[in-house]
């Protein structure tokens, strides 16, 4: 009986070890995906910041050129406040 019990135990331990290995593989895969996503976000953030800096620099250069040429700088458009018109008219 003892050899049969040890055989059952050995098979159970093998199954457990295989399940544990699969779990570790899945965790490693998920960790790699998370790291890749984080790296992508960092790269995109850097690109966005570089674009914004370039646009700001271009706007400042255009404003400086316009003022040097004696032209007023473009004013930002503002919205007029809405006036309420009631049923009286």
Could you please describe the fold and organization of this structure?
The chain is mainly alpha-helical and 89 residues long. Helices cover 75% and strands 0% of the residues. The chain has one helix at residues 2-68. The model has no long low-confidence stretch (mean pLDDT 88).
Question: Keyphrases for this structure?
Answer:
mainly alpha; 89 residues
Short summary:
The chain is mostly helical and 89 residues long. The protein is 75% helix and 0% strand. It starts with a helix and ends in a 21-residue tail after the last helix.
Give the helices and strands, then pairings.
Layout: H1 2-68
End-to-end Cα distance: 102 Å
Work out the strand percent. Answer: under 5%
Low-confidence stretches: none
Give the overall shape: elongated
Count the DSSP helices: 1
- Estimated radius of gyration: 34 Å
In total, the number of strands is 0
**Assembly status:** single chain
User: What kind of sheet is the major sheet?
Assistant: none
Overall pLDDT confidence:
88
Number of domains: 1
Assign the structural class, choosing from mainly alpha, mainly beta, alpha/beta, alpha+beta, or little secondary structure.
Answer: mainly alpha
- Helix and strand element order: H
Helix content: over 70%
């Amino acid at each position: 009986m003892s050899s049969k019990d040890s055989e059952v135990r050995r098979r159970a331990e093998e199954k457990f070890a295989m399940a544990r290995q699969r779990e570790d593989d899945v965790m490693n895969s998920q960790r790699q995906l998370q790291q890749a996503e984080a790296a992508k976000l960092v790269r995109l953030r850097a690109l966005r910041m570089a674009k914004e800096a370039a646009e700001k620099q271009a706007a400042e250069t255009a404003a400086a050129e316009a003022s040097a040429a004696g032209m007023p700088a473009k004013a930002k458009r503002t919205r007029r406040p809405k006036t309420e018109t009631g049923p009286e008219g």
